[in-house]
Amino acid sequence: MRTAIAHWGNGLGIEGLASRRVAWEVLRRVHADGAWSTLALSTALGRAGLDARDRAFTANLAYSTLRWEGTLDWALAQVLSRPICEVEPALLDVLRLGAWQVLYGGTPDRAAVGTAVDLARSAVGPRATGFTNAVLRGLARARERLPWPGPGTNEGLGLVLGYPGWVVAEARERFGDRARAMLEAGNEAPGVTLRATGCPEALIAELATAGLDAAPGLHAPEAVYAPGADPSTLAAVAEGRAVAQDEASMLVSRVAVAGLAPGALALDACAAPGGKSTHLAHLGARVIAADLRPGRARLVAAAAARLRLRVPVVVADGLAPPWRPGAFDLVLIDAPCTGLGTVRRRPEVRWRRHPGDPARMGALQLALLERAAPLVRPGGRLLYSVCTWPRAETAEVARAFLAAHGDRFKAEDLNLTGAGTCLPGDPGTQLATDRDGTDTMYLCAFRAH
Ligand SMILES: C[S@@+](CC[C@H](N)C(=O)[O-])C[C@H]1O[C@@H](n2cnc3c(N)ncnc32)[C@H](O)[C@@H]1O
């Protein structure tokens, strides 16, 4: 176990309490406030004033602990003398950080335990130090004889790979023999991908001037891969020359406008925070961006303003759309989903979702497509995309839509220049981190006639 994933520990030294305290704050915001780790980390790092090495250590510690949370809780439960649910949440997060270092981080046991005890004292109080010391010492002693259930079952493989058993079962169902590779790819730390809003070569040169290695992306011409960049600190992002966006999302907008006349009228019915709306506008569409939630709709308006694009933003429920039939050349339903295809960037998403969620989200996605269908003019396109992969949210939704609307819509062949896989019996295309190096995003285009 330690050997198999030892790469997470490479280069980790015995950084100080400040880094661990920041990582703990991130975990608290994720667990207590439901924050996304990326935003919580960026806020916490912004306040902390750590140097570059400590920032990297902190990010790795926080993301890795979130990624392996289920396995860490299972391992801690083996040495705890009371049920893990009885450990106070703030202290449990201290233990998780310590357990990750003991099991995976390559940190010497003395340092992992000692720094966890210091963190417990500073974050929870002196009363927590003895308990923290005892639990983590117990874990270090038990490390080589933990009763791993073996990877034959979904739960067992989930412990090895850092996923809930039900997600492993879903992956086996959808990807068959590829399931393990797919899930492992979701544990890789993603590099940063930027969408150049002007000339990609100029953006690469600008990043090089700032000391950053950057290269063209793999799939979309506007994609620039900038592994070491922090988008929140880049002038190119602040000044609208670049947008942080995964290439899978760029491919969705490219597919959306393929073959449409310049100036075609597009509705992005689930638009916030506006990544695809603004991309569609850059690609020449006239876009109306809609979202159910006013606060999120404001994010689209802010993104369009930063990029100096005219994108009218409307607060509207896609289940009761206020537009006349046939109003649009293109309707994009980039639907709310489980988000399991984004685990590289949001490692906690796997622990936030529950077994019934794919079917529940799939039903909502189908309802959104049903309501959007009349808005597409004859000859126009309805594009369905989700940043996830369980069958109930992807293939089953596309198939159910075609079963009900096959008289008016046909699934289109997508020209993704080699990216994506058409899985058996699925009218759409599944991009996947293991094969494409992108988020595991699904898309299916329907042409109206
Ligand atoms: C996956 S996100 C969209 C991401 C966005 N297209 C982008 O590329 O930046 C899904 C969005 O759907 C919105 N949403 C959820 N239910 C909706 C509904 N019934 N009608 C319209 N929007 C909805 C959510 O508020 C959320 O912003």
What structural keywords apply?
8-stranded mixed β-sheet, 4-stranded antiparallel β-sheet, disordered N terminus, binds S-adenosylmethionine, alpha/beta, 449 residues, globular, single chain, 19 helices
Present the secondary structure layout.
Blueprint: H1 17-33, H2 37-48, H3 52-67, H4 69-79, H5 89-105, H6 109-123, H7 129-142, H8 154-161, H9 165-175, H10 179-185, E1 193-196, H11 200-209, E2 215-216, E3 223-225, H12 235-238, E4 242-244, H13 247-257, E5 265-268, H14 275-282, E6 286-291, H15 294-306, E7 313-315, E8 328-334, H16 349-352, H17 357-372, E9 376-386, H18 395-405, E10 409-411, E11 429-430, H19 433-436, E12 442-448
Helix pairs in contact: 1-2, 1-3, 1-5, 1-6, 3-5, 4-5, 4-7, 5-6, 5-7, 6-7, 8-9, 9-10, 13-14, 17-18
This protein binds S-adenosylmethionine.
S-adenosylmethionine binds next to helix 14.
Outline of the structure:
This protein is α/β, with parallel strands linked by helices and 449 residues long. It is built from 19 helices and 12 strands.
